[in-house]
């Protein structure tokens, strides 16, 4: 050990000597008080280049019109894009809005977020509670539920497309059972149902894992005490498990909310937003407006993305507040 | 100085001299079949004729031509030459090669109709911007075997959309296949029957007037056919927005009686259907006003950003030659845009009988296409019409909008597109 320790000490000293001169130079150059900024500078530059500048560009595009790509060739239109997106007689009726497709996407996203998050958190909780028990093949089942999370969203969508299409596996099963086949992806309500279902199937495993970690963090002696007191299973769940799991639940809820608002890839491959606009969510509207359709209305897409970012920002603040509350023991 | 140093210096000088005179043209090429491979063979002759000029072909996906190339060109990057389909949309980036071609009059004579597709916006009205090497035409395909099995007579040339709908429905009912008719999910395919029903698409001032009585008449018929199951609802209602969708797989699987698509499907059907069943191209289908299809095509264009405009001009001049086009078309099994070759006909190499017959049917239908169809194909903002049409008509099919609302929105979408592109 001694030669190794000597080698380590020598390396440390060499590194220290090597850094001493540049460090002193930096201190002389920027002053001792500002050395921290000098260290932060590379990260700030990268962050600025790839985060702040694109955000600023997005705001600038949102105030321009036309279909030109280069910002300096685009005419300024002020807040016209925002006004056009928000121009509605009734926000509950997309047909009364100037941008009906935007508001259909808003409505669809709202329903999708509510249904997907509520059912996914519920199913994830039930699954985590089951997988937390001392079951045979517990490790295998944990793997099974987590497996879809590892799949590419495109693969998930294609697998389900083969299952749900007119001549797919599900209809073949129905027909062999004597039932009439259903056009799952052509009927608006069914298409929306499957979009929610598949999204839950694909992402639930991730939240099961988080909830499982939360469940395992609950001290066993609390349950032992409850058992000694003769508490019923429901009472143990509602008075011990749920309250102690609540901090984890909040994180799961906020994370899944943000993810649901950002849903795009699986749905785009599965239904393309159809039939009609029945499964078009906000992100797809932005993509279609800015890139897929002609002319490319970058300004409108940028304005829609800012409105969506505002929603995500509110959700992020909610998460920060919730997690800060946990850290402070509230 | 030693002999070795002298030789080394001379070699270096030669290398740099070579580099200075060498002109490499980068060619972004997409292919439906073997177009880029065939062009690569042909370009060997061009390179032999033009020492120092080489053509480097980058075979790229169609999506890259459609979405990546315009962005590259807008920022002053991109290839010297490309094989594209959106002539109107890319016209502003195209190089006028008229000053560099040997005989502009001959090119005008051979390719006049398709040259017009890139003469939009600020481009010169007599400029030579594009040499179309694959003319496409929309038209119908019928599964002849299903007609024979059903004992239903196939509608004769000149039959109307209603005739085909009635016959295809009878065949579907008799044979038990899933679909009677299908139309690709794009405004381009929709335009042919709409024009046949009387849609003018443009007013007297040349500005688009998308929704008129003719357009409305076919839109209503089309939605009704989707609702009653005559049309395969899966194709249009199965997607959202302006997303393209086709029914080629259903036709190849023998599950569709009549399919309205285009000549670019011929090669695929020849290869994938094989002898599983007999199929025929039906050519144009008629409406009350016309029997037109929609023209379209892919062609080779040079871009203004090139550093070698003369070499690009010579390349397009080479591409336009009759004998070069003939050799390429024979192997790629495409319809000629070259008027001389259209008139003389092309002998396709190793083409199965149904493929040759279908190519002949489609080629024969081209001269009868309506001038409106050509005008729409050459219209700068046609992509806006082609993507807005399926988006709004599908909303009417699935009941999100009434027909009136859908058409009103469609008109507004196109008006906005035109305004945005000013």
Any overview of this molecule?
- The complex is a heterodimer of chains A (330) and B (422).
- The longest helix of chain A has 32 residues, at 100-131.
- Chain A starts with a helix and ends with a helix.
- Chain A is built from 13 helices and no strands.
- Helices cover 74% and strands 0% of the residues of chain A.
- Chain B has 19 helices and 8 strands.
- Chain B has helices at 3-21, 35-49, 62-74, 87-90, 104-115, 144-150, 161-175, 187-196, 213-227, 233-237, 248-252, 266-272, 309-320, 322-332, 339-344, 353-365, 371-378, 382-398, 403-420, and strands at residues 23-29, 53-59, 81-84, 130-143, 179-183, 256-262, 279-283, 295-302.
- In chain B, helix 2 links the parallel strand 1 (23-29) and strand 2 (53-59).
Task: Summarize, please.
The complex is a heterodimer of chains A (about 325) and B (about 425). By secondary structure, chain A is an all-alpha fold.
Pick out its properties.
heterodimer; A: 330 residues; mainly alpha; globular; B: 422 residues; alpha/beta; eight-stranded mixed sheet
Q: Decide which structural class fits the backbone of chain A.
A: mainly alpha
Globular, elongated, flat, extended or rod-shaped: what is the shape of chain A?
globular
**Average residue-wise pLDDT of chain A:** 91
Overall pLDDT of chain B:
91
**How is the quaternary structure best described?**
heterodimer
Using only C-alpha atoms, the radius of gyration of chain A works out to 27 Å
Shape of chain B: globular
Please write the string of helix (H) and strand (E) elements of chain A.
HHHHHHHHHHHHH
Radius of gyration of chain B: 24 Å
The biggest beta sheet of chain A, please? Answer: none
| Sequence stretches where pLDDT stays below 50 over 5 or more residues of chain A | none
Secondary structure: helix percent of chain A: over 70%
Proportion of beta-strand residues of chain A:
under 5%
Number of strands of chain B: 8
Total strand segments of chain A: 0
Q: Greatest interface and its residue counts?
A: A-B, 34 and 38 residues
Tally of helical segments of chain A: 13
Q: Quickly count the helices of chain B.
A: 19
Largest sheet of chain B: 8 strands, mixed
